Amino acid sequence: MAASFGLFIGVSHLEYDNMALAFGQRADQRVAAVRQGMGQAFEVLAVTNQLFSRGEPVSRERFADFTSALLERHRFIQAFNFHRVVPGNERALIEAELQRVRPGTILTEMTPGGQVPAPLRTRYHVIEYVEPMAGNEAALGLNLSHNAAVMDALELARSTGQPAASSLFALAQAPTSQASFDLVQPVFDKQGVMRGNTAVVLRGKELVRESLAAAGLLGGGDIFVSVYASDHADPAALLFSNGPTSRASRHEFAGWLRPDHGMQNTILHAGGRAWRVEVAAAPRPFLADHLASLSLLCGGILVTLMGAAFVQSAGERARKVQQLVRQRTSELRRSNRQLIDDMVARERAEKALLHSEQRFRQLVSMSSDWYWEQDAELRFTMITGGFTEKSGVAVQGLIGKTRWEYVPGLLDSESGRTHLAKMQAREAFNNLEYQIVDDDGNARWFCVNGEPVFDEAGVLTGYRGTGSDITERKLTEQRVHHVAQHDVLTGLPNRSLLQDRLSQSIAFASRSERPVWVMLIDLDRFKFVNDSMGHKAGDVLLVTVAARLRAALRDADTVARLSGDEFVVILNEHADEPLSPAVVQRIMDAVAQPVMLGNKEFFVTCSVGVAVFPTEGTLSENLIEHADIAMYRAKKLGRNNFQFFTPSMNDEAMERVRIEGALRNALERDEFVLHYQPQVDMKTGQIVGMEALIRWNHPELGMVPPGRFVGVAEETGLIVPIGAWVMRTACAQNKAWQVAGYPRLRVAVNLSARQFGAANLMASLEATLQETGLDAACLEIELTESLFMSDVTPAVELLHRMKALGVNLSIDDFGTGYSSFSYLSRFPIDVLKIDRSFVADITHDANDAAIVSSIIALAHNLKLAVIAEGVETLAQLDYLRSHGCDEMQGYYFSKPVPADQFEALLAEGRCLPAPTLSPAPETLPA
Ligand SMILES: Nc1nc2c(ncn2[C@@H]2O[C@@H]3COP(=O)(O)O[C@H]4[C@@H](O)[C@H](n5cnc6c(=O)[nH]c(N)nc65)O[C@@H]4COP(=O)(O)O[C@H]3[C@H]2O)c(=O)[nH]1
Fold this sequence. Notes:
With 926 residues, this protein is of the alpha+beta class. It contains 28 helices and 33 strands.
């Protein structure tokens, strides 16, 4: 761009130089034309002056002739004049002369206010001749002696001897015309005195125009000429101008691009005066003069722009390429980094996958599960995780098969059909359990879970899941199920399964119209075995009996253990063997075989109750209950017995139930009373004590004996509060009698096994003694042998604690239970009570008599007192007395009586009659 401008400026200057050269030539031409015009004017003056300079008078006509040709040729001449120097005294002459030429003419002068008559002067310089007259009439007679312009020029011309030019002044004949001036040349007479001068009045403007026109330079508007009658551009001296003057043009042509080449000033010297000729070129369109430079500039700019554009586009392209390269590079770097990250991530993922797979394999191998996969047709494609080892089935046998192909019976089961439906619905399934037979022929149970697998399009690609061998669990469940339905000890069905079997049997009986017998078998004296020989012996006995019952029955029959020593047998009648009591007897005989318990042989018998279905009044659901009632009756009638249920038994059972219900309120309703049976010293015959025996005075049942309700009270546990009441009442009564002044007696109170086992026995006992104020020595507690049969140690401890209170302890019904010398020696017992069953027969049963005498001897040897129960006869009394029995109790002396009657006995002072004189026999005859 700079080069273009440089070139442009250079070429511009060349163009200017060229223009300046051309202009200079044209300006010179114009200056020369002006100079020539001026020269012509001077020549005309000189010619005219010569006319007068000859010394001969020049007539007006001659002057007119002479100048007329010149006037014709030079249009720029306003007039030819001859100025005469006129002394002041000749004014009139000259005026007369002039009036002759032109009437009325007087000498005039020009003043600023216009042309006025000339004042009187000493000398005048009057325009005497003027040609042409027409148009110049005002000049005739004009006095110029005071016209400085003309006089100065005349003086110059006289001094130089050359024509001189005046400055510009206003003409009298044309006061408004500008740029007029005179060329003057003095006219001398022969004496050399200036008599006047010739003058050519010039119209400066026309002079220059004609000069230029004559040179053919007037046309053309592109160059202007200004001429000043001065050496400087004084507007007042402006002679001619056909265009802008120098002052104005200077403004227009200024500019750094346009040096002042269009202006030329030339100073001409003519007629003793400097003439300034200014030639100025008209402003031209810049383009016309500077086409080349402008073209160059435009071309340069174009080239520059194109070059710049090219460079720009090339640069842009390069930049874009560079940017692209940079972008690609960064993308490449990024993708490289991404790639590296991906590789690292992939490596990490692969490692994680590897670890996960290892973990999976380890877990699978450690877990009991295996992992399986199936294809879209639900055929196994893979089973891993030690399947063969865990299941005992070779994997190869399963690959390519569906589950129901290798477990053929699967779809027959409900769970199998559900499984198939789920598979067809493409749903997950859980805990599908099925049984298979492994390669060794063993039955096994599998449990499998699975879920469908879909591809990205949602199309099923197969199933996968886990499986485990649950054979152990299944067997355990079966065992648990078996345990739930069977007795643990004997393996026989328990009550739950019994109900099922009974329902089945009844259903069978209903269909076959053959009866069902339900036998309830209770072992006799089982409690005794259990208590005396320990639970293990009891268990052995139960297991043995169970096996015997099982062996005695057919497979179709059911034997179940109901509870404790109770068994239930269900017998369905079959065509080949009608049911009969002989069947019952056979079963009883099977049980009644000796059993080895430890090293002792034990004979076990049982009591059996039988209920038959169908029987009038027996519902199927009451069969076992009725059998139980019948068994209860059998037990009552004596052991090793069986009874068939009859509706009357039911009445008794109902009464039991009624008693149980009424018993619960009896204590609150104060329905119990105590009767007292005296205990008499055999030696003195005096009452020494009494046994408190409970009676239940029921409003409807009347006086209920203890045999009807004590057992029920024991079974229900009601005996504990009832017993406490008995103890308290008996103690209080005894104390009352003592306080009443009766002899100090001992009161005996029965303590049931249930009471003996009660936790608060000691506390209750102590509280009773405390509350009643009875001396402990006046209380005797009667215990039965069965209390000591089971766990002896705590019983011993308890007895010692009771003994420590000071109470007496006696063993009731001695000889009927498990009588043992060992406990007699270990226990702190004071009294043995001989059971009345022995006493009853001592007079006619040698064995009982022997037993009684033996008990007495034994007791005495052990330093125990002996009291005989149930003494009804004198013979019995005598026998006992003769054998040294210490005390007696029985109807012979008194029945148990209410307290008031007992008090009457005391008051009466009843005694035993004295012993008979005849000695009692030692032993009764056999
Ligand atoms: N045949 C006959 N019997 C005689 C004779 N002398 C007394 N007896 C009866 O023999 C039983 C003696 O009581 P037990 O052997 O302790 O037998 C008692 C005792 O085991 C129990 N019992 C009675 N009262 C209570 C009590 O308050 N608490 C507890 N736990 N059991 C009691 O009920 C059983 C029966 O009592 P009871 O019916 O009062 O029957 C009493 C009594 O009336 C006689 O000469 N001949």
